[in-house]
Amino acid sequence: MPGGSKAHSDGGWDAREKGFIPVQTRDARFRSYAAAEFPAVTGHEVNWKLTPVGRIGDLIDGELSGAPYELDAPTTTGIDVSWVDRSDARVGVVGTPEDKAAANAWGSFDKALVITVSGEDEQELVLGRSAFGAAPRAAHTIIEAKPFSNAVIVLDNSGAASLVENVEIVIGDSARLTVVTVQDFDDDARYVATHFGRVGRDARFKHVVVSLGGSVVRVNPAITLAEPGADGELLGVYFSDAGQHLEQQVFLFHEAANTKGRVNYKGALQGEGARTVWIGDVLIGANASATDSYEQNRNLVLTDGTRADSIPNLEIETGDILGAGHASATGRFDDEQLFYLRSRGISESEARRLVVRGFLAEIVQKIGFAPLEERLNSAIEAELAASVGIAGSTLGRQVDGAQR
């Protein structure tokens, strides 16, 4: 049924033919470009049940401005940035919305921002986007990496925002592309985004989600390894403060044979009401023989009053794979690590900062773009410096973990 799941009925049935969609069948969800074809969002749907829908209701089904916005796009050899009409043939090449918010944005934008990478020598582009404004808005971005091209693209989001965005990413054969989306919005900003990606033959794609600022931030990557030899690395780092909701629902689809996928997200939480949600769906399709896939999520709780939801899911439709697995853990400081540092003359507060920095550094160091890595390390330091309860004596050892 559109927008959700339906309970199993007695007797045999085929999910695709009869419209029943078990929760675990990730690729059978309803999809449409038209928001009107989705039922009203109540917060009970499988892909909305952990989201504060009351705080973003106007973005899900309200009226959105689709006008182009100002951006800072420095001229870069081998990378073209331009606005195109929604009738452009590149719109809709990758992905179809599977929730009402994405469909609402799809039907509301006037022009799409297209970033085309064509140079074979590695290029870097940091696209500054700080002029969205506080009014509800829709946006559509297309990133196309031509075959054999090589680039790092950073979508640097900041300032005020009430934005719903769809991002389509096409990685041509043998291309090397890194896309980093940074959410460093104002404290009251709201941002809901879906990133659709298609990775071609022997191409390598790195997708990085960095969420630091904003009231509600929901970034959902849906990446398909569509051709043999495709390699996808999906990374994320996030730091949630009091009252802040940071969410990621990740979907990695091994569609073709001989593909490799790695998903690794890490987050920290501090302050009353800090909330994070991570859902990782990996699907190894029936034709994806010799697949190598692994996903994991780790959350570090710094104070009481926080909540981290972490749900890894793995669906395998073929028995011919190299390996597949997933892991999830949410915990507090490790007393043994703290004892080791303090026994060497390091103060408790500094020891706790070192533990957090080391915990998140694994992801930051994998971005592969030094200026951004330095900036993120500074931002993490600022978050820790502003912490009130990080040295609280109630923080103990890991409280929950799962390895499958």
TrEMBL record:
Signal peptide interval: none
Pfam families for this protein: SUFBD_core (PF01458)
SUPFAM superfamilies given in the database record: Stabilizer of iron transporter SufD
InterPro entries recorded: Fe-S_cluster_assembly_SufBD, SUF_FeS_clus_asmbl_SufBD_core, SUF_FeS_clus_asmbl_SufBD_sf
UniProt domain SUF system FeS cluster assembly SufBD core: residue ranges: 138-359
Organism: Naasia lichenicola
One GO term (biological process): iron-sulfur cluster assembly
The name this protein goes by in its record: SufD family Fe-S cluster assembly protein
